[in-house]
Amino acid sequence: MFLDKVSKGVAGAGVLTPLWPLISQAQDISAAYPEELLSIESYTKGKIKVGDMLTSENVEHVQDLLDPITYIEVLEQGRQIKIVKTTTDVTKLFPAEYLEATIKNQGKAKLDENNNVVTQEGEPWIGGNPFPDAKTGLEAYANLTLSWGRHDSAMYAIRDWDIGPDGSEQYQYDFVWAEQNTVGLTNSDTPYMEGREDLLRYNAIWFTYPNDSRGTSFVNTWYYDQRKFPDLYGYIPAFKRVRRFPSSQRFEPLVPGITLFLSDGWCAGDPMLTWGNYEIVARKPMLGGVSENWHGSNPNSEPTVHGGPQGKTFFETTMELIPEVIVIDLEPTGFPRAPVGKKRVWLDTRTMMFVACVTYDRRGELWKSVQVTTSQFIDGDTVKMDGDHPGWSWTKCHVHDIQSNRMSRFYHAEEIRGGFKSGWNQDGLYEKYMTIPAIRRLGS
Predict the structure, then answer these.
(1) Phi and psi at residue 222, in whole multiples of 5°?
(2) What's the rounded Cα separation, in Å, for the pair 149 and 111?
(3) Virtual CA dihedral for 234, 236, 241, 246, nearest 10 degrees?
(4) How far does the chain reach from its first CA to its final CA, in angstroms?
(5) Residue 207: CB partners within 8 Å, gap ≥ 6?
(6) pLDDT tens sequence across 216-271
(7) Are 322 and 284 in contact (CB under 8 A)?
(8) Which residues lie below 8 Å from residue 74, measured CB to CB, with a gap of 6+?
């Protein structure tokens, strides 16, 4: 049925019945899928069960459910992944306000003559996923691009380790990634930040450790028109000044040793119309890390590590059988000198959040993966609230350059050196951290 959908260009998630009417009526999604798409034991005919650990001994039974780099990591590099039960209550996969906006605003979005997302009246988007039941690859990707973290604003305190090919820790950084959307606001009285309807978001990044990188900071100002590159400014402590960077310079490490590029952020780090040739190439089940991935009962919420030559390459991860993902290929049409030839992305149809992403170089060779886990912030009796609801967010990330076998792994910490703490929908993030005077102040 999935093959038939793709070959005929049929939209709509769900197999036995359409998915989004169930979600809109706050129903369990089990009615949309047969048992073998909701139970890993049924899917693998008993070879893999909930509670099992994927290892090199059994991973071949689920090769078709993993992206190619994750499969290599488990088969050859000692990565292990715990299997947990499929989530059928979709309220556990979103921030509450974002899900409410997605349901309320269904059918109100369209692509204008330039392929930007607007309301039916031609106004900037008003919140939630604009195309929860996407018909095209571009519509599906718009869900990812317009609101990265599904919060109006967020500040993520991040601790990063960069692992070399020999499995050693070669670099370690503490940094903050902060976001402030200006349209599509879901936790506000109005969907727009007044006077900034021509923008999409502000995004700032600054490093607090080690000392030779402390003060390095960047701010991106994204335009709502997805044909335009963001304005990118950075403060480099060695030069003691703010400079403007070429906006198309998005395929380089932010700091030495890290494999993360600006382009990699949320697997949608570039305006979506600077990429093109969006094509839905498959619909299929997939294993993805979308639940039970927050470690709030650990000090500073830090995950344990394992695997690789020295037991330090991978974070502990849980994955569940996602009944349906959309697989999209896209190409960097707006970047004549891009080292990337193609990106392939797997989007969970329940949320339209990416669960895996791999890039291929200009020769067509497999290059790099970006794999983020997400979760409600519940760990046993430990719960981190977001207003009246348990929090939901990304929890950890692997960015693996398979050609050089260099790994950057980082996680969503409670606090990092410099005293910065994680939080959602905080007041004043723009004024404190997302202006040129702010990054100069952070740098000094």
Answers:
(1) -90, 135
(2) 22
(3) -40
(4) 58
(5) 173, 174, 175, 213, 214, 215, 216, 217, 255
(6) 999 999 999 999 999 999 998 888 889 998 877 899 998 999 999 999 999 999 99
(7) no
(8) 54, 55, 56, 59, 66, 80, 81
pTM of the model: 0.96
User: For 141-194, what is each residue's pLDDT tens digit?
Assistant: 999 999 999 999 999 999 999 999 999 999 999 999 999 999 999 999 999 999
Locate all alpha helices (DSSP H) within 44-192, ordered by sequence: 68-77, 96-104, 137-146
Position 119, amino acid: T
**Strands, DSSP E only, in 292-339?**
305-306, 314-315, 318-331
Contacting residues for 76 by C-beta, under 8 A, at least 6 apart: 56
Distance CA 225, CA 378 (A): 37
- How far apart, in whole angstroms, are the C-alpha atoms of residue 183 and residue 126? 7
Determine the Cα angle at 388 with ends 386 and 392, to 5°.
35
What region does 84 belong to: left with phi over 0, alpha with psi -120 to 50, or beta? beta
* Interacting residues of 21 by C-beta distance below 8 A, sequence separation 6+: none
Measured CA to CA, the distance from residue 147 to residue 122 in angstroms comes to 19
Question: Which residues, at least 6 apart from 160, have a Cβ–Cβ distance to it below 8 Å?
Answer: 171, 172, 173, 174, 175, 258, 408, 409, 410
Query: CA 419 → CA 158, 198, 236, distances in Å?
Result: 12, 33, 21
Report how far residue 389's alpha carbon sits from residue 131's, in angstroms, rounded to the nearest whole number: 24
Query: For the CA atoms of 344, 347, 352, 353, what is the dihedral angle to 10 degrees?
Result: -80
What is the DSSP-derived secondary structure letter of residue 34?
-
Instruction: Please tell me the distance from the alpha carbon of residue 262 to that of residue 245, in angstroms, as a whole number.
Output: 12
